[in-house]
Amino acid sequence: MKKDNDWKERLNVVYSTNPDFSYESEEEEEQSTLPKEKQSLRIELDKRNRKGKSVTLITNFIGTDDDLQDLAKFLKTRCGVGGSARDGEILLQGDFRQKVLDLLQKEGYAKSRVI
């Protein structure tokens, strides 16, 4: 149960005469994951700043980090390569654009496309 007059929530507010004033807290809301059908993933080959090595880059994922990690693990195991996932991007070592596209479409990511 939360108290209405919790002083810790309003440390930066001195006084308000508005009876309908609500104190804003700085807590971030967790971003929810879009359904697979609405995800518009981009698959591209990237060679920049990688010492000549190519990586498959999957971008535009909208959702939680846990869901991103799960998708990255699925793709890495199905392609048999290493990689990483952070900031809405999945990196797979090597050129697997067509294979990733096929895997994503079978999983229900219909709007995925190769750039």
Short synopsis of the structure:
This protein is of the alpha+beta class. Helix content is 23%, strand content 18%. The protein has a domain at 36-114: Translation Initiation Factor Eif1 (2-Layer Sandwich).
Strand order of the largest sheet: 3-4-2-1-5
Count of DSSP H/I helices: 2
User: C-alpha Rg, in Å?
Assistant: 21 Å
Q: What order do the helices and strands follow?
A: EEHEEHE
CATH fold group of the domain at 36-114: Translation Initiation Factor Eif1
Kindly provide the name of the CATH class of the domain at 36-114. Answer: Alpha Beta
- What is the 3D form? elongated
Task: State the total count of DSSP E strands.
Answer: 5
CATH superfamily of the domain at 36-114: SUI1-like domain
- Which residues form runs of ≥5 with pLDDT under 50? none
How are the SSEs ordered, and which strands pair?
Layout lengths: L41 E5 L8 E5 L5 H15 L3 E4 L2 E5 L3 H11 L5 E2 L1
Parallel strand pairs: 1-5
Antiparallel strand pairs: 1-2, 2-4, 3-4
Protein name: Translation initiation factor
Family: Belongs to the SUI1 family.
GO molecular function, one term: translation initiation factor activity
Question: If you had to describe this structure to a student in words, what would you say it looks like?
Answer:
With 115 residues, the chain is an alpha+beta fold. It has a domain at 36-114: SUI1-like domain (Translation Initiation Factor Eif1). The chain is 23% helix and 18% strand. It is built from two helices and five strands. The protein has helices at residues 65-79, 97-107, and strands spanning 42-46, 55-59, 83-86, 89-93, 113-114. The chain has a five-stranded mixed beta sheet, covered by helices on one side. A hairpin with a 2-residue loop joins strand 3 and strand 4. The longest helix is centred in the middle third of the chain and has 15 residues, at 65-79. The N and C termini lie far apart (50 Å). This is Translation initiation factor. InterPro entries: DENR/SUI1_TIF, SUI1, SUI1_arc_bac, SUI1_dom_sf. Residues 21-41 are annotated as: Disordered. One of its GO terms (molecular function) is translation initiation factor activity. One of its GO terms (biological process) is regulation of translation.
